[in-house]
UniProtKB/TrEMBL annotation, chain A:
<keyword id="KW-0808">Transferase</keyword>
<dbReference type="GO" id="GO:0016783">
    <property type="term" value="F:sulfurtransferase activity"/>
</dbReference>
<dbReference type="Pfam" id="PF02635">
    <property type="entry name" value="DsrE"/>
</dbReference>
<comment type="similarity">
    <text>Belongs to the DsrE/TusD family.</text>
</comment>
<protein>
    <submittedName>
        <fullName>Sulfurtransferase TusD</fullName>
    </submittedName>
</protein>
<dbReference type="GO" id="GO:1990228">
    <property type="term" value="C:sulfurtransferase complex"/>
</dbReference>
<dbReference type="GO" id="GO:0097163">
    <property type="term" value="F:sulfur carrier activity"/>
</dbReference>
<dbReference type="InterPro" id="IPR003787">
    <property type="entry name" value="Sulphur_relay_DsrE/F-like"/>
</dbReference>
<dbReference type="InterPro" id="IPR017463">
    <property type="entry name" value="Sulphur_relay_TusD/DsrE"/>
</dbReference>
From TrEMBL, chain B:
<dbReference type="InterPro" id="IPR017462">
    <property type="entry name" value="Sulphur_relay_TusC/DsrF"/>
</dbReference>
<protein>
    <submittedName>
        <fullName>Protein TusC</fullName>
    </submittedName>
</protein>
<dbReference type="InterPro" id="IPR027396">
    <property type="entry name" value="DsrEFH-like"/>
</dbReference>
<dbReference type="Pfam" id="PF02635">
    <property type="entry name" value="DsrE"/>
</dbReference>
<dbReference type="InterPro" id="IPR003787">
    <property type="entry name" value="Sulphur_relay_DsrE/F-like"/>
</dbReference>
<comment type="similarity">
    <text>Belongs to the DsrF/TusC family.</text>
</comment>
Length: 130, 119
């Protein structure tokens, strides 16, 4: 089965960890993830700047590793990311900010990517939200 | 055939960027001619109250985004009778106009859409 996974909550929210575990379970079960899409406070899980104490769980690092190791399509909403200070090199230059803060291998793109993913997937599974 | 999407918006207009970001999903989907509907639930129904003054709380008015929904082809708009009643809005003139649904109708509505996003 093809899944699209959307994350709306910040890295410290339990729903964020559940989303990661769900993504791992989808892959372990032999299913496909057509796209992981971060929106709202979910974009913080694609930031490279937070420093997590060594003996604590680093959600952003775990997401980056998952996307990289499985060559997933990891997309962060550009409007939500700009609003929250998660910028790639191009946007940091465009808005004259001192540093880029988008972790690898995430890409910034528009909400059309969320809609495309929901069309391609058999199931859209969302995590976070009110 | 394109999959249909119901966006359930539960955020008050001035509680953060949530309400605006839910509307943005609807408008983006409408721009792609996808079958999109919106349900205003819980504090989300506050978005429908006209005559709000955004400036004193340093916010940008959401009215233009809400009014743009039909222009983007998002004209299936619903609200919860229970949510409206609990907030004293049931008998007020609201904008944009929505179809008001009781709890049983809400349950039926959820079953009519392929995908659901709650924000």
């Amino acid at each position: 089965m093809k899944f699209a996974i959307a994350l709306f909550s910040a890295p410290h929210a339990p729903s964020s960890r559940r989303a990661l575990r769900f993504a791992e379970a989808v892959l372990a079960g032999g299913h496909e993830i057509v796209r992981v899409f971060f929106y709202q406070d979910g974009v913080y899980s694609a930031a490279s700047t937070p420093v997590t104490p060594q003996d604590e769980w680093d959600t952003a690092a775990a997401w980056s590793a998952l996307v990289r190791d499985h060559q997933l399509d990891g997309v962060v909403c550009i409007a939500a990311a700009l609003r929250r200070g998660v910028l790639n090199d191009e946007e940091a230059q465009r808005y004259e900010r001192d540093a880029a803060s988008l972790a690898k291998p995430w890409e910034l793109s528009g909400l059309g990517q969320l809609h495309e993913a929901t069309q391609l997937a058999d199931r859209l599974v969302c995590f976070g939200g009110p | 055939m394109a999959k249909s999407l119901l966006i359930i918006c539960r955020q008050a207009p001035w509680s953060g960027p949530g309400a605006r970001e839910a509307l943005d999903i609807a408008l983006a989907g409408g721009a792609f001619d996808l079958p999109i509907a919106m349900l205003f639930l819980d504090d989300g129904v506050f978005q429908l109250q006209p005559g709000q003054h955004a400036a004193p709380v340093q916010q940008k008015d959401l009215t233009a985004n809400l009014q743009a929904l039909p222009l983007f082809g998002v004209d299936a708009l619903y609200s919860s009778v229970r949510s409206l009643e609990e907030r004293g809005l049931l008998h007020q003139a609201l904008s944009p106009a929505t179809e008001t649904l009781n709890d049983a109708a809400l349950t039926a509505l959820l079953g009519q859409y392929d995908q659901v996003i709650t924000l």
